[in-house]
């Protein structure tokens, strides 16, 4: 989950690399480091902490950081605690080679023992230092150039990596390679400059052209000479495809908001519209989704749908289960990708596997996709990032069009994923005839109203802020929901845990009696989703049980509700919509609540401790 970036060309490398690290800091912020080569010597600075701390180190150490080639790294710690020594970049023993690395080398201990036997010493606890010394040993023993040394070394590596390697004896060259971790290469005008990064955000203002390496590929980038891409395992040269980026600079800046998370919460009306625009013609009852239309028979003839995902995407998948089974009458199983891949699941060619991931790079989800494909299943991807690994690995798919999500705690990813799943469901229900035309048209009209209803909800931010102020000192919270809103209870609890570090749990409301009710007292806030559709009376009964035990109740209800208002301590109203689409509304106040509590507690909302945005390692 680390972020790597690099530059080679005619500009000064330092400002490009340091700004690139700032944009990649969502991937990890345990430590940061940068290397610039000035034509004579390697200038290296690295430190525990954030990129801000790295800039302070650079300012204080007196180094000019001049040079036209450089690499940088922002770390989410795996091997070795976060400290200065374990920070990247790492040198080889001779000091000639420098590396930045995102991923995990699983057999690093075996490789390390072999290198120690050959006289190598190690200064850090990282697997990355092992890798750079392995490359140096291969280069020395084989008498080969850097590109070949990297290639041969990687054939002995087990694990995942995206790396950029520099050799001061070849100062106009960078070598980049990928397996299981993302890497993009920005191509400047006339092949005069090149950019390397974990995603395209570090170089978007310089070029719209990028090459995304596939797993098992290596690129040799030479200043003024271009890029050569080849397979790591067989030396075959590849004609790399240059893609035009759809990203723009404005999308990855805060735009006047205090935090990316708040900006992204407020972007949800537009993101939902962008997700269904061109796919849904509500007034005509039309749903067009190329990935579904072209593979409709796969869905219609499926014995079941298996949804695989992690974290917030898993919660969206749970909503999808309710949608598919209720409307399209297709059996659904929702699996944690991290468990699915290891429990020898029964998968057949009659299964459709839907893989959901905001980044499109989630390691466990990618592994689950590969497992499902090996068993003959049809795999459909739902992700947000064009050109991501999941979009390339799946048979077909649909993008969410949420735009870049920088805040670690997902918000607009959740609502746009539900939007895509809703469209797929209605398309299948239409094709199967499980819903009447008038019912489907009613759903489409309701979905079209959701962005305006979200806008209306965002306007109650002051009310949510006042409620947050009341409960900001809580040490435990309970979130309850039923039916379509049970997954929202899970997601609300996750948001609070992620950014405020307050312990919270989500439950189906009826399950409260099977254990969690023992926690209820006058100090326990309980957030209950009690919309008027579905299981309203049952949820009201659960609220009364909480109240009788002195619990503090914050209820999310449908506009005009009277019954719950008389019982609850605080009430947040949402606009009326069909039960199936209530998760798109009920999640909004819970996102705002978590945000305000975290801000009031002085937490780093966009970069919560121990987390990173894209989980590209196991």
How does this model look, in words?
This protein is an alpha/beta fold. It has three domains: 3-251, 4-Layer Sandwich (Glutamine Phosphoribosylpyrophosphate, subunit 1, domain 1); 254-458, Glucose-6-phosphate isomerase like protein, domain 1 (Rossmann fold, 3-Layer(aba) Sandwich); 460-609, 3-Layer(aba) Sandwich (Rossmann fold), CATH 3.40.50. It is built from 19 helices and 27 strands. The chain has an eight-stranded antiparallel sheet, covered by helices on one side. Helix 12 links the parallel strand 20 and strand 21 (378-383). Helix 3 (108-117) packs across helix 4 and helix 7 packs antiparallel against helix 15. It is globular and about 80 Å long. The mean pLDDT is 90.
Question: Nearest-angstrom radius of gyration?
Answer: 26 Å
Number of helices: 19
The overall average pLDDT, rounded, is: 90
The separation of the N and C termini measures: 10 Å
CATH superfamily of the largest domain: Aminohydrolase, N-terminal nucleophile (Ntn) domain
Biggest beta-sheet profile: 8 strands, antiparallel
Low-confidence stretches: none
Strand content: 15-25%
Shape: globular
In which range does the helix fraction lie? 25-40%
Number of distinct beta strands: 27
| Highest-level CATH class of the largest domain | Alpha Beta
CATH topology label of the largest domain: Glutamine Phosphoribosylpyrophosphate, subunit 1, domain 1
**Biggest β-sheet: strands ordered side by side in the sheet:** 3-2-4-1-10-9-11-15
Q: How many domain units?
A: 3
CATH architecture of the largest domain: 4-Layer Sandwich
Helix/strand class: alpha/beta
């Amino acid at each position: 989950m680390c972020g790597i970036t690099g530059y080679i060309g005619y500009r000064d490398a330092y400002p490009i690399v340091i700004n690139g690290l700032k944009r990649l800091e969502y991937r990890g912020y345990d430590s940061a480091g940068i290397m610039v080569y000035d034509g004579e010597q390697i200038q290296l600075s690295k430190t525990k902490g954030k990129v801000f701390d790295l800039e302070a180190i650079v300012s204080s150490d007196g180094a000019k950081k001049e040079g036209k080639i450089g690499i940088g790294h922002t770390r989410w710690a795996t091997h070795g605690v976060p400290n200065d020594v374990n920070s990247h970049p790492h040198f080889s023993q001779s000091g000639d080679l420098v590396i930045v690395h995102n991923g995990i080398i699983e057999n690093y201990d075996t490789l390390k023992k072999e290198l120690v036997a050959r006289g190598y010493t190690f200064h850090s606890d990282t697997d990355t230092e092992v890798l750079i010394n392995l490359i140096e040993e291969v280069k020395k023993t084989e008498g080969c150039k850097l590109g070949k040394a990297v290639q041969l070394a990687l054939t002995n590596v087990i694990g995942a990596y995206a790396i950029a390697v520099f050799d001061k004896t070849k100062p106009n060259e960078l070598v980049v390679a990928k397996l299981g971790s993302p890497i993009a290469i920005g191509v400047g005008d006339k092949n005069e400059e090149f950019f390397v990064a974990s995603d395209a955000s570090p170089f978007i203002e310089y070029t719209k052209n990028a090459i995304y390496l596939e797993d098992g590929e290596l690129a040799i980038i030479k200043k003024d000479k271009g890029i050569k891409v080849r397979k790591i395992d067989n030396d075959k040269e590849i004609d790399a495809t240059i893609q035009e980026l759809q990203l723009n600079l404005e999308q990855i800046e805060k735009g006047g908001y205090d935090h990316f998370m708040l900006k992204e919460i407020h972007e949800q009306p537009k993101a939902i519209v962008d997700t269904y625009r061109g796919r849904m013609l509500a007034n005509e009852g039309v749903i067009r989704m190329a990935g579904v239309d072209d593979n409709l028979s796969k869905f219609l003839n499926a014995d079941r749908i298996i949804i695989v995902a992690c974290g917030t995407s898993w919660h969206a998948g749970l909503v999808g289960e309710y949608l598919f089974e209720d409307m399209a009458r297709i059996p659904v199983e929702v699996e944690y990708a991290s468990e699915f891949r290891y429990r020898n699941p029964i998968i057949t060619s009659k299964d459709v596997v839907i893989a959901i991931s905001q980044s499109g790079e989630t390691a466990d989800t990618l592994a689950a996709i590969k497992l499902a494909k090996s068993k003959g299943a049809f795999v459909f991807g739902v992700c947000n990032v064009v050109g991501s690994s999941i979009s390339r690995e799946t048979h077909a798919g649909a993008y969410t069009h949420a735009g870049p999500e920088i805040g670690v705690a997902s918000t607009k990813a959740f609502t746009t994923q539900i939007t895509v799943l809703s469209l797929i469901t209605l398309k299948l229900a239409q094709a199967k005839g499980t819903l009447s035309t008038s019912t489907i048209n009613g759903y489409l009209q309701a979905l079209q109203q959701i962005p305006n209803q979200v806008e209306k909800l965002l306007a109650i931010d002051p009310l949510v802020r006042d409620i947050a102020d009341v409960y900001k000192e809580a040490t435990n919270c309970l979130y309850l929901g039923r039916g379509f809103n049970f997954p929202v209870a899970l997601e609300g609890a996750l948001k609070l845990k992620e950014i405020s570090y307050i312990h919270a749990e989500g439950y189906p409301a009826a399950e409260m009696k099977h254990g969690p009710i023992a926690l209820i007292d006058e100090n326990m806030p309980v957030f209950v989703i009690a919309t008027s559709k579905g299981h309203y009376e049952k949820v009201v009964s659960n609220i009364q049980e909480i109240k009788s035990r002195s619990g503090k109740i914050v209820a999310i209800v449908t506009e005009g509700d009277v019954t719950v208002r008389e019982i609850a301590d605080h009430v947040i109203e949402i606009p009326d919509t069909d039960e199936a689409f209530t998760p798109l509304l009920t999640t909004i106040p819970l996102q705002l609540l978590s945000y305000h509590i975290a801000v009031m507690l002085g937490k780093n909302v966009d970069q919560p401790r121990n987390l990173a945005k894209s989980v590209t390692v196991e």
